[in-house]
UniProtKB/TrEMBL annotation:
<dbReference type="InterPro" id="IPR050605">
    <property type="entry name" value="Olfactomedin-like_domain"/>
</dbReference>
<dbReference type="GO" id="GO:0005615">
    <property type="term" value="C:extracellular space"/>
</dbReference>
<keyword id="KW-0964">Secreted</keyword>
<feature type="domain" description="Olfactomedin-like">
    <location>
        <begin position="132"/>
        <end position="389"/>
    </location>
</feature>
<feature type="signal peptide">
    <location>
        <begin position="1"/>
        <end position="19"/>
    </location>
</feature>
<dbReference type="InterPro" id="IPR003112">
    <property type="entry name" value="Olfac-like_dom"/>
</dbReference>
<feature type="coiled-coil region">
    <location>
        <begin position="57"/>
        <end position="98"/>
    </location>
</feature>
<keyword id="KW-0325">Glycoprotein</keyword>
<keyword id="KW-1015">Disulfide bond</keyword>
<dbReference type="GO" id="GO:0007165">
    <property type="term" value="P:signal transduction"/>
</dbReference>
<protein>
    <submittedName>
        <fullName>OLFL3 protein</fullName>
    </submittedName>
</protein>
<keyword id="KW-0732">Signal</keyword>
<keyword id="KW-0175">Coiled coil</keyword>
<keyword id="KW-0217">Developmental protein</keyword>
<dbReference type="Pfam" id="PF02191">
    <property type="entry name" value="OLF"/>
</dbReference>
<comment type="similarity">
    <text>Belongs to the OLFML3 family.</text>
</comment>
Amino acid sequence: MGPWRCLLLLPLLAPALRSQQQQFMEYVERRLTLLEERISQWHDQSSRYSTELRDFKNQVLGMLEAAEKEREAMRAEAESAAVRVDRLEREVDYLETQNPAPPCVEVDETLMDKQVATAKQRKNEKYTKLTDCSDTIASVRAMKILKRFGSASGLWTKDAAGSSEKIYVFDGTANDTVYVFPRMREFTLFSATRKAARIKLPYPWVGTGHLVYDGHLYYIRQQGLSFQVIKFNLANKTVVDSSVFPAEEQIPVFGLSPSTYIEVSADEEGLWAIYATKEDEKNMCLAKLDPASLDIEQMWDTPCPRENAEGAFVVCGALHVVYNTRLPSRARVQCVFDVSGTLAPEDASLVYFPKRYGSHSSLKYSPRERQIYAWDDGYQIIYRMEMKKKLEV
């Protein structure tokens, strides 16, 4: 097509081109308008969301401030309540000290005459002490709760005579496996028994009256209606000796620990056995044991009742029996029987134990450390004792 023909067609095509250009511009304007509307809508929504978020943040900050004030108020109330409870416990201790509970021994004139006659008859049978120990417990100086391990009843202790730092744990009232921890640290830090050595005994034990003394374990075995004291060597894991306890028709020695028939205890004088029989089912009996042969060296009928007793131990030849008090969370030494006659029962200190979780299933006195290893509803507790001379009580 020649140039002159293009020039002829331009006037005809110009209106069509202008129309298309106008439509394109209108389309672009509509799209821009729609985009502007969307941008404006997004801006409005963003502003609304920002406002709502700011309001929510302020609301949360206000709630947090209110919660912090409430927490501080509750903490202050808890501290105030703890102070009041501690003051109340001190006042209760003071009141109970000023008004001691009446003795649990029933007053019977015939029985009293019989006891007086027996006491006169046995004056020459008083115990001849082996040491110069003349101390008695004045008070519980401190209480330390180490952990919670095992079942509600059991016992834990160190060697009462040796220098070993090993911890021996008897879980339950009927078992045959003793856990041994190398030191107090391992027993305290680890909740599981994987760090403990295990000693499997040839016979299962019964009760919580067992003892570790001078490298040997003295534990109680029940065989029918009789009870044996088993002497077990901890070094070579063998039974050294055993002896049937020479008491007929034995009954649980503590009213609150029905599984314990014999409590083997150690003090500065050696080994003792605390037990009870049907012959005098109201009170406890005490026997001096020969640790080498398990022979009974001497026996006493004590005035200490079994009723409401939860444990006992011997200190410097004096039996100390722990009973429940009127308050369900407290216990105290209410009966003391000194085999040498040096300490009269009425002259003994009134010893209170701090509040506890349940009932003591075992109380093991360590003459070397002058403290008690207690098992209280699965909690292992150490009571540090304050001592006095018997003549100063």
